[in-house]
Amino acid sequence: MPQLDIQISIEDADWPAEPVLGETAERVLKAAAAYLAENETQPFPPMPVEVSLVFTDDASIREINAEWRDQDKPTNVLSFPAFPLVPGGKPGPMLGDIVIARETVAREAVELDKNFDEHLTHLLVHGFLHLFGYDHMDREEAEKMESLETRILATLGLSDPYAGHEPA
Fold it and tell me: 164 in a domain, yes or no?
């Protein structure tokens, strides 16, 4: 089973406590890594692969989104791979960073009629897949990525977050 070294930074006091976020992140990301290794034959190095999680707020993620994506608005999750990786490529010792904004996650959870933890779980999986080179810039990529997300979330007991929607 792939080994992960998960580093957590909490920049917004309204997020749950670090032990709670750590348990959630470990459960979710290990399930995603195991699924990729078993079903997508994703190669992992024998040593732990580091992933950094930043739990922040809308103001901070808006600044990051404006600087790196030229989109001056908050978003739910941003991923920054440490090294370019194509799906199925072997990661190095550092996967990259996943940044998640609490207010956007909470707002979307209400809009989607989901509980906060389920939506956070989905976004962790989504961000994690971006670190492995998966994307949703065109229909084919979106179908592949969304299918993977759905199958990984099913291993965690969650339903298809895209049911009834066209691929992004």
Answer: no
- Is the separation of the CB atoms in 21 and 120 below 8 Å? no
The residue segments making up the domain with residue 114 are: 4-155
Q: How many domains does the chain have?
A: 1
Look up the CATH number of the domain holding residue 143. Answer: 3.40.390.30
Q: CA neighbours within 13 Å on the CB side: how many for 48?
A: 10
Indicate the annotated binding residues: 126, 130, 136
Residues at the annotated binding site for Zn(2+)? 126, 130, 136
Write the pLDDT tens digit of every residue in 62-93: 999 999 999 999 999 999 999 999 888 889 89
Tokens 């959630």: give the residue. 24
Specify the pTM. Answer: 0.95
Judge whether 165 lies within some domain: no
Residue with tokens 């908050």: 74
- Residue 68 placed within a domain: yes
> How far, in Å, CA of 49 to CA of 59, rounded?
29
The predicted pLDDT at position 41 comes to 85
Look at residue 160 and tell me if it is in a domain.
no
Pairing state between β 49-56 and 94-101:
parallel
Residue 26 is inside which H or E element, if any?
helix 18-39
Tokens of 41: 């034959």
The answer to whether 138 and 22 have CB atoms below 8 angstroms apart is no
